[in-house]
Structure formats: C-alpha cells, structure tokens
Amino acid sequence: MTHSIPRSVVKNLDLFRAVPDKDLDTVLSLARPMRLNTGDTVFQQGEPASQFFVLLHGHLKVVQTTADGEQVVVRYVIPGEVFGIAKAMQRPAYPATCLAVEESVVLGWPSSEWDRFMTGNLQFAANALQAVGQRLQDAHSRIKELSTEEVEQRVARCILRLIDASGEKTDEGIAVNFPITRQDIAEMTGTTLHTVSRLLSAWKDQGLVITGRKRVIVCKVDDLIRLAEGAVSGVDRSAARKKPVEPF
Amino acid sequence: MTHSIPRSVVKNLDLFRAVPDKDLDTVLSLARPMRLNTGDTVFQQGEPASQFFVLLHGHLKVVQTTADGEQVVVRYVIPGEVFGIAKAMQRPAYPATCLAVEESVVLGWPSSEWDRFMTGNLQFAANALQAVGQRLQDAHSRIKELSTEEVEQRVARCILRLIDASGEKTDEGIAVNFPITRQDIAEMTGTTLHTVSRLLSAWKDQGLVITGRKRVIVCKVDDLIRLAEGAVSGVDRSAARKKPVEPF
DNA sequence: CGTCCCGTTGATCCCTATCAAATGTAGTGG
DNA sequence: CCACTACATTTGATAGGGATCAACGGGACG
C-alpha cells in the first residue's frame, strides 16, 4: 500500500456506491491524494484531461472562459463529488478550469483507469451515468432560468441552491459554506457584480440576508423562495426613473 | 421475431456502436416501432418514464414548460439519437415534453430494459455515457452563450448549429431540414419571436439568408459565423431611437 | 374562400449593463 | 502595530438593447 487512505473515505462517495470492497481496494491503491491552497488550480481549460478526481474536503469552482475573456461559473464542486471526467465522455481536454476557493483535498486517478473501473464494475458505470445525468438536469434548469426569468429571480434561486447544496446553519440563518464574491454570483447568473450587489443590499435592508465580504447568510429562506418564484420584490426601481420635465 | 426490423437499422446507431450482433438481436426483439404525425407527442413532461427511444426518421422537438406557462426548447432530436432516457438517470418522470415537428418514426423500449442493456453489454454503457456527456457539453455552451452574448450572436449561433446538425444543401444555400418557426428559435435562444423576426428580416435584406414560413436557408455561412462570433451587424439599431425635439 | 397560424413592423418603455468613483476590508511587510 | 496595497463592495448617473404592446399582412389548409 503506497498511501494510507482508509477505505471508508471512498466507500461513502456516490461514485463508488454499492461497489464491492475488493474493487474499492484497487481503486484506493491507484488514488493520488492532493492538497490545495486557495486559488490553486486542479486543471486548466484546454489542458489534456490526464486525470479525473473526487473532492474530499473544501470547495472548488469550475469556470469557463469565453473567447473574449469573460468568465462563466459552471458550478461549485462540493465534497464527495466527481469532477474532471472529460475523458469519460471522450473529450481529450478539460473544457473548463477548476480551482480551489478554499483549502481543499482531492483524490485523483489517471484517466486511463476510468475505462478499467467502467469495465470492471457495472455499478460504477451506472453511478457515473447518474452523476452526469444529474448535472445535465441542473444545466437544463439553468438554461430555463436564463431564458425566462429576470435577474432578481435568478440570483435568488442561485443563492437558494448554494445553501441547499452547501449551507451551514448558524444562529443568524443559513450561511453559504465557502467564500463567494458578488462577481462569482454574477458569473453564475449571467449578470454583473453591480446588479448582484444592489440586489443583496436591497435584501439586506429588508432583513432577508446578512452579507459580508465573500459571505452570504440567508435569514428568511421563505421570503427568498417567494422572490425566486417570481414575486415582486420591494426593491424600488423608480429611483432611477426620472419624470421628464413638462414642457410648460 | 415479432417485428421485421432489419438489424442494419440499429447497427449504425451511436447508442449501439460496437455492440455485438447477438446482443443487437435481443435489442431488436424488444423494440417497439412507432409512427408519428406532425404534432403528435411521444411523451409529456411529468409523465412516468416508462420507455426510452431512438429516432429513426423525422425530427422531434423537446420542450420544457415553466411554472408560468412559458416554453423553452431543450433541443431538437435528429435521426439516430436516443431520447427519453430519464430512467437511466434514475428519474421517475420525463422532465420535458417530446413532440414530432414532422412525420417521424421512433423505436421504443421499456425503461426496465435499460438496466439489462447496461449490464449485458459494457459498450452500451460507455455509449450512453458519451451521449449524455455530449449533451452536457452542449448545455454548458448554451449557458455560456445565454450569459455572455447578445441576442444577435445567439440567434446566429443557433441557426448555424441547426444547419450543422441537420442541414441540407440546396442550390440557394444550406437549409434547415425541418419546419421551424420564429417562436421556436426564440425559445431556443431566450428571446422573443419579434426579435428573431427582426433579425431574420435584416439578414434577409443583406442576402445572408432566405426565409419563408417555417423555413430558413443560410446563403452566406461565413457571414453568419462572423455575426455569431460577435461582429457588429449592419442592422440599424438607431431606427427606433428618436432624436428628441430640440426645445428651441 | 374563409380561417387559422405565422410572420412583419412600428412605437414605447424599462430592466439592467455600463461608466464612474468612493468606501471598506483582509492581508502584508516594515 | 500601522501604513500600504490589493481586492471587494457600494452606490449614483446614464443609456441602450430588447421586451412589450399593438396592428396588420400573407400563406396554407380545410
């Protein structure tokens, strides 16, 4: 045994659910653990997809950069999830960049092992398919939202999703578990950091959320759900609207 | 043999690529063919996912309806593609409605057979994963476009994608192979039929495309590519912008 | 040949991007 | 420990890309 990774570490991962212990031992023996500091990249967009990974601890951000330098946050990876499985879908290169937003620990395998895992264990194949299927559903939800909803709804839904996937109960409300900026939220919802900032400020005034540098805590979840579902907010849009001066 | 489906019909489908003939015979014996008229639905959003399908001939539209009745076109299914594989991703119900936009022929299997195919043949599992992976990539592209590009680029790209996936060379240019309305294009690009109509009209004036009822033919592919990549169009946006009357 | 359905086009409005600038906050090195 | 710096956030002002509202025109199909 080259590493001292306990079997229990992978046993509870979705990707390895219901995979027999003897196969898990093989899996473990091939795993390469990796420690990351905030800002470290696991892989870069366009780079050959030489490995696939599971996140054990921390949080990662997956970002696509467009031709003209704009960025889109594809998703956040939370502990227990697989990522970087480009090769499994027959892509030679990673389609996005993946970086740590806080100290994190990942487990990596050479992409060549993917096929071995697939062929060696049917449960593994089914688990992988389900994981990708779930992501496809999520992507379609996002497309629907970007196509039909207004910014406020989208941002509300985005934050709800964040606390749902990775929220932490505090005495003030439910907090997003990892550092996230207005810019990040904007890149997830197809808007600008300015608009996100204005929305959060308005919500803060109404006591809906508590905000801080790279921090969001939701106090009134129900009210936020109402906004996500299209209720009209109390945000005063008329502030900017000026009544034109009557020409006599 | 209950049906007279020739083996060659499924042999060339991506989903069954490299699957041995003996397995194909099993697959065929369980297949249920179905003929569809324009407007017929294969399945409805929310309905239990009792079957999965392959399109043999024609074209289908996959549509999601939002809570408030708006529609989003998820994708068009072209001959040879799998669809309705909700159950493979462990979803109990279809997440969208699927309907024929022209006369079509599909092949259906009971969802329960999916697992049998998966376990019976590893190549099948890999093919399925690749198909879903490709769709995930497509979905991410769309998210990126909806987030960062303007309407004209998105519509241009949408039409390019249509002729790429299902274009037919004519002596006037490359035609979209199936009936499609301005409304459909709008629902694919997150805009309104009005805006799509205006864009197509402008492009028609410039000789970029030829349009008709439910028809689009691209004459100058290169120019359209240029638009999709963000070149400024010749569309006169100032038409609507009125110079306010000088008050003396 | 009338009736849908699809497409076109004008006019107006407003949500939100953009431009601009100030304030606040964590981290760092002297 | 504080000044310095880099990065995050806030907030105001303005403008414009498209949605929306409204009406008409035209082709297909029964």
User: What structural class is derived from the secondary structure elements of chain A?
Assistant: alpha+beta
Order of helices and strands of chain A: HHEEEEEEEEHHHEEHHEEH
**The CATH homology group name of the largest domain in chain A:** Jelly Rolls
Under CATH, the topology of the largest domain in chain A is which? Jelly Rolls
Q: What does the oligomeric state look like here?
A: homodimer
* Residues in helix, % of chain A: 25-40%
What is the typical, i.e. mean, pLDDT of chain A?
92
Beta strand % of chain A: 15-25%
CATH class of the largest domain in chain A: Mainly Beta
What about the largest sheet of chain A? 4 strands, antiparallel
Cα-to-Cα separation, first versus last residue of chain A: 89 Å
Please give a structural write-up.
2 copies of one chain form a homodimer. The first copy, chain A, folds into 2 domains: 7-146, Jelly Rolls (Sandwich); 150-228, Arc Repressor Mutant, subunit A (Orthogonal Bundle), CATH 1.10.10. Chain A has 8 helices and 12 strands. The first copy, chain A, has helices spanning 7-11, 21-30, 112-120, 122-148, 151-166, 182-189, 193-205, 221-228, and strands at residues 32-36, 41-43, 51-57, 60-65, 71-77, 82-83, 97-100, 104-110, 167-169, 174-176, 209-212, 215-218. Chain A has a 4-stranded antiparallel beta sheet with strand order 1-8-3-6. In chain A, helix 3 crosses helix 4 and helix 5 (151-166) crosses helix 8 (221-228). The longest helix of chain A has 27 residues, at 122-148. Chain A is elongated, with a radius of gyration of 21 Å. Chain A starts with 6 loop residues before the first helix and ends in a 20-residue tail after the last helix. The relative contact order of chain A is 0.12. At the A-B interface, helix 3 and helix 4 of A face helix 3 and helix 4 of B. Chain B binds a DNA duplex (30 and 30 nucleotides) through residues 150-151, 181-183, 191-195, 197-198, 200-201, 211-214, 237, 239-242.
